[in-house]
């Protein structure tokens, strides 16, 4: 079988291996002692050693090594027990690779090429095994049946995968099975007659981490708000942990962060079939791959991944085919080499002219030619499913071309109308056609002092321009240029100002958005300018705070351009609107690009490169701060050891990420960081942040407090200069040495180019895939921290602002029950998921963020209310919901729910309030708004009595209570009859004998009361009912009896999940 390449220092250590076949690059070796007929002593010794070794330590008898001429290091790339299998691997290497390796001039590229090929073969074998398993799903069906029987969850709870593992209780492991589903993780164990099982919703997971303890070196720890669970002994720990993190992340983003919702989208070809185990696994893998591809190429978040195909691309600068992966999305083609960052290409589909298949040969197997508009072609070979890939790309290309032609035809028709042209003409004159830097320089050099410096700066710029022109001639120019390690070095040197705007547009792909949306920006400006909103007010407040020292923003022209860009973006994306730090970023963009280009760059940064950074909760920035803390612990362990609490450093570095160092570095130095950001994305900010901390590690370790640490970092960043800056000390003529008499010591300065180069050398191995994996795990902690804050504020506001008479502890538990009911509806609700998601709005007040509908309220009512009314319970719950739903939007907020439970149920101490609530439940809709002056008709009074009778059912004093309520009912009826007669005797009765009819609807109708219009109707008031109830001590004792809310809440927590699950299973079974 093929192996992940492993280094072998000594190919014939102790002469344990015998070479069977060899050529310039490969060796097929046999373990001495296997297959020897001569029975030599060495072979017998080695054979005996292999026989007595444990099975895990035994060495396979055959292997294939990759050897590079002139190198002492070889790599094991295949091993096996049968000579036939090894001969097949050898023949494949000779037929497919040996000829290609001879064209490499650099022998180091040989090793990289072969190792990439072997990894690709391993990936194909894994996919083949998964496909074979999918054809026989009997094993999964058995696991699914056990999952449903053991945990009693509805069939709509999709099982994803299962793992055999151990769950630790103290120092005792329990062997069992871990079940991972869409919304939960569950564990089951049955050993020595003892059953252990539990279910953990992903929404309750606050942390997932891999730890090492004295008992086990590798464990998965799952932390919730109540306890920790440790799992170990997985057959595939990496896979299990990856799926756990991904499922928890998806669930939490769906449940808690609906503003940035990205759920698992599975496009099923046959929707009527139940999705299988391996299909769900593939959905998760595709979701993770899609997130990686979007981050790697900084694509729009709406892009869908279509194909991912292993192949090799012809790279003219290297004069060879570079192995890698081709990723295709709705509107882009992206190629990335096996080693991330070594070589990549991004091709917008709008730039593609044709995708064609070429004739396949032994040297160029399965070639595909992609032609683009710049008269350039890209060659791909070794595509496994070439025909389907080309057909898919051709179909999407034709569709895109048809849309573009339709758009152009519509635009040409619009041009014949003169009205739009007249309205747009003055607008075009207001949009700046050039970058502001072309008109305003940041600083004016002193002609008496800086002549030599200016000449040197100009020479440096010219040298950079020449290097870039040479690079363009070799690697291409524009969006589809080859992005290699060489371009990384050029970016680290600083992009020349004449090319900065162009390259920012190219690296970010904002140029494609600009080309695809002509006149979009001018239209936005026309719509947005002159409108007033909270965003425009904040923009006006910050306009003059954006680079105030730069001459471009000390005049009307620059300020007006900045206003238009920020206002247009706030109008385009009202969900983000305007956030602080956007003004600083937009100011820098306007300096080096045209106004319309600056707008599209701002769109790219806010929506692609820094997603979830610029909003009210800045979730994305907080996630990256948490990731940055872990990278500090991993990459700077000595600093982390001296500063165990890294949160102060994380707080200090927040502005680094939000403003791309623009607010902390000198202007020209910060612009160099922006260069790296547009080329590498947030990876560049992580690397540079680590380099800054490492450069100041000694000073930070010796700092006494957080304030001193802030001063250390601020002082360091202030003195980071750029060679091209005329005002920087690095550009000044050398002064007299420090220490001479009469001269102060020269302040030490750091060049930004040196700092960036240092960050690449020391932390350049950080990959986008690692960052995305860390983000997935740390997003769980950040979202749960926000949820804890929301809960604390909701409970605090309910206690203080809304005067809810419950203890904070009980309110906290009720909030959990309320939120869980909301989640259960999202888990298993039929056809109501979209509505339920809309009921959680993080922008609403804390006490109103979660809401429940009528069915969810009934479930909570049954769990928490101390008076259950038997068959009459649903009616009372319905009436209660109608009473609480004051705004008639069919939802109840947590504030309304907590207020009702604390002030108007048996959990409050006032008997009057309890009777008042029961009375209010029986007032017909629209009958009267003032309870004390409102009388209920005879029909509703009878319903009131039924409610009381049903409340007493099952009570130990049931008989006495029934007698008491019978007495009260008789008394109230007599009172009502006397009142009715007195009103009748004082009024004229019509001769035809008509009587008024009440239009009240039992189940929440909107009928209007007719009793107000006829004073002779039989009615009874709240005061009469209360006075009658007070005559019976048994009833007074019942209503004044204190109730334990804490015990009821604890019981509800145990029942809520399984009762709701059982009800939903029953409902699904009856369909």
Automatic annotation (TrEMBL):
List locations, semicolon-separated.
Cytoplasm, Cytosol
Q: Where is the composition biased (Basic and acidic residues)?
A: 992-1005
GO CC annotations, alphabetized: cytosol
Q: What is its main location?
A: cytoplasm
A single Gene Ontology biological process assigned to it is: glomerular filtration
Sections of the chain in a coiled coil: none
Sorted alphabetically, which SMART domains does this protein's record hold?
GRAM, TBC
Alphabetized InterPro entries for the sequence: EF-hand-dom_pair, EF_hand_dom, GRAM, PH-like_dom_sf, Rab-GAP-TBC_dom, Rab-GAP_TBC_sf
Signal sequence range: none
Q: Which residues form the Rab-GAP TBC domain?
A: 494-681
Q: Where is the EF-hand domain?
A: 872-907
Query: Which Gene3D superfamilies does the entry mention?
Result: EF-hand, Pleckstrin-homology domain (PH domain)/Phosphotyrosine-binding domain (PTB), putative rabgap domain of human tbc1 domain family member 14 like domains, Ypt/Rab-GAP domain of gyp1p, domain 1, Ypt/Rab-GAP domain of gyp1p, domain 3
State the residue spans of region: Disordered. 722-746, 984-1010
> Which keywords does this Swiss-Prot/TrEMBL entry list?
Cytoplasm, GTPase activation, Repeat
- Protein name stated in the entry: TBC1 domain family member 8B
Q: Which gene codes for it?
A: TBC1D8
């Amino acid at each position: 079988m093929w192996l992940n390449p492993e280094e072998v220092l000594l190919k014939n250590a102790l002469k344990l291996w015998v070479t069977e076949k060899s050529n310039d690059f490969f060796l097929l070796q046999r373990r001495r002692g296997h297959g020897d007929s001569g029975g030599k002593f060495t072979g017998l010794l080695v054979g005996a050693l292999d026989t007595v070794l444990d099975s895990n330590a035994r060495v396979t008898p055959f292997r294939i090594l990759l050897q590079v001429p002139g190198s002492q290091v070889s790599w094991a790339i295949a091993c096996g027990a049968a000579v036939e299998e090894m001969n097949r691997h050898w023949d494949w290497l000779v037929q497919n690779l040996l000829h290609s390796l001879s064209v490499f001039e650099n022998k180091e590229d040989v090793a990289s090429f072969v190792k990439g090929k072997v990894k690709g073969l391993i990936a194909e074998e894994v996919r083949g095994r998964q496909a074979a398993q999918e054809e026989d799903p009997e094993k999964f069906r058995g696991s699914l049946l056990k999952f449903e029987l053991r945990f009693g969850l509805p069939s709509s709870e999709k099982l994803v995968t299962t793992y055999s593992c151990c769950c630790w209780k103290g120092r005792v492991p329990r062997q069992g099975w871990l079940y991972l589903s869409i919304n939960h993780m569950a564990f089951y164990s049955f050993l020595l007659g003892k059953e252990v099982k539990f279910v953990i919703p992903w929404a309750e997971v606050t942390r997932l981490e891999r730890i090492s303890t004295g008992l086990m070196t590798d464990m998965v720890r799952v932390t919730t708000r109540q306890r920790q669970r440790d799992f170990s002994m997985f057959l595939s720990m990496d896979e299990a942990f990856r799926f756990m993190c991904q499922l928890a992340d998806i669930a939490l983003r769906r449940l808690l962060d609906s503003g940035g919702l990205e759920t698992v989208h599975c496009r099923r070809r046959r929707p009527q079939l139940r999705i299988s185990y391996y299909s769900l696994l593939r959905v998760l893998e595709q979701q993770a791959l899609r997130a990686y591809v979007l981050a790697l190429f900084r694509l729009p978040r709406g892009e869908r991944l279509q194909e991912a195909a292993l192949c090799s691309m012809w790279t003219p600068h290297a004069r060879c085919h570079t192995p890698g992966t081709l990723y295709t999305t709705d509107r882009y083609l992206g190629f990335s080499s096996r080693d991330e960052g070594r070589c990549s290409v991004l091709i917008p589909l709008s730039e593609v002219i044709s995708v064609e298949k070429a004739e396949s040969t032994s040297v160029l197997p399965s070639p595909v030619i992609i032609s683009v508009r710049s008269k350039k072609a890209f060659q791909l070979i070794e595509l496994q499913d070439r025909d389907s890939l080309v057909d898919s790309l051709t179909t999407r290309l034709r569709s895109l071309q048809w849309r573009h032609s339709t758009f152009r035809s519509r635009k040409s028709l619009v041009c014949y109308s003169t009205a739009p042209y007249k309205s747009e003409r003055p607008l075009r004159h207001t949009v700046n056609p050039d970058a502001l830097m072309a008109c305003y320089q940041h600083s004016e050099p002193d002609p008496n002092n800086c002549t030599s410096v200016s000449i040197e700066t100009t020479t440096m710029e010219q040298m950079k321009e020449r290097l870039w022109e040479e690079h363009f001639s070799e690697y291409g120019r524009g969006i589809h240029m080859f992005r290699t390690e060489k371009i990384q070095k050029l970016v680290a040197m600083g992009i020349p100002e004449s090319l900065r705007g162009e390259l920012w547009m190219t690296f970010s792909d904002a140029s494609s958005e600009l080309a695809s949306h002509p006149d979009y920006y001018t239209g936005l400006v026309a719509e947005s300018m002159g409108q007033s909103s909270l965003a425009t007010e904040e923009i006006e407040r910050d306009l003059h705070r954006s680079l105030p020292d730069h001459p471009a923003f000390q005049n009307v022209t620059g300020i007006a351009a900045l206003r238009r860009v920020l206002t247009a973006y706030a109008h385009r994306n009202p969900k983000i609107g305007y956030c602080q730090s956007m003004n600083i970023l937009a100011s820098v963009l306007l300096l080096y690009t045209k106004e319309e280009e600056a707008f599209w760059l701002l769109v790219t940064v806010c929506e692609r490169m820094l997603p979830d950074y610029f909003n009210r909760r800045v979730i994305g920035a907080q996630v990256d701060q948490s990731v940055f803390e872990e990278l500090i612990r991993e990459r700077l362990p000595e600093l982390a050891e001296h500063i165990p609490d890294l949160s102060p450093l994380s707080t200090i570095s927040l502005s680094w990420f939000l403003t791309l160092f623009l607010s902390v570095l000198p202007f020209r130095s910060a612009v160099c960081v922006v260069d790296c950001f547009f080329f590498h994305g947030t990876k560049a900010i992580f690397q540079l942040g680590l380099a800054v901390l490492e450069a100041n590690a000694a000073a930070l370790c010796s700092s006494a407090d957080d304030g001193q640490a802030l001063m250390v970092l601020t002082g360091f960043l202030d003195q980071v200069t750029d060679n091209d800056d005329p005002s920087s000390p690095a550009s000044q003529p050398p002064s007299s040495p420090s220490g001479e008499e009469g001269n102060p010591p020269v302040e030490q300065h750091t060049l930004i180019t040196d700092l960036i180069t240092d960050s690449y050398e020391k932390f350049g191995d950080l990959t986008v895939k690692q960052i995305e994996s860390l983000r997935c795990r740390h997003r769980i902690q950040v979202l749960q921290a926000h949820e804890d804050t929301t809960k604390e504020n909701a409970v605090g506001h309910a206690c203080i602002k809304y005067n809810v008479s419950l203890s904070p502890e009980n309110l906290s538990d009720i909030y959990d029950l309320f939120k869980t009911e909301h989640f259960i509806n999202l888990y298993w609700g039929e056809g109501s998921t979209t509505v339920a998601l809309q009921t959680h709005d993080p922008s609403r007040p804390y006490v109103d963020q979660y809401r429940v509908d009528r069915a969810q309220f009934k479930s909570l009512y049954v769990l928490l209310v101390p008076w259950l009314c038997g068959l009459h319970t649903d009616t009372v719950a319905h009436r209660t919901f109608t009473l609480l739903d004051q705004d008639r939007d069919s939802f109840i907020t947590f504030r309304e729910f907590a207020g009702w439970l604390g002030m108007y149920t048996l959990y409050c101490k006032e008997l009057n309030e309890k009777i008042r609530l029961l009375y209010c439940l029986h007032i017909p809709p629209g009958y009267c708004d003032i309870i004390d002056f409102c009388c209920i008709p005879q029909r509703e009074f009878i319903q009131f009595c039924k409610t009381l009778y049903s409340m007493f059912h099952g009570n130990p004093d049931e008989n006495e209570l029934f007698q008491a309520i019978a007495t009260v009912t008789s008394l109230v009826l007599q009172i009502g009859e006397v009142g009715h007669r007195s009103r009748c005797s004082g009024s004229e009765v019509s001769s035809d004998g008509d009587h008024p009819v009440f239009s009240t609807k039992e189940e929440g109708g909107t009928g209007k009361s007719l009793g107000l219009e006829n004073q002779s109707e039989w009615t009874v008031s709240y005061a009469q009912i209360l006075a009658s109830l007070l005559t019976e001590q048994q009833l007074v004792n019942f209503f004044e009896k204190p109730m334990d809310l804490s015990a009821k809440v604890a019981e509800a927590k145990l029942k809520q999940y399984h009762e709701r699950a059982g009800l939903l299973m029953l409902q699904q079974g009856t369909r």
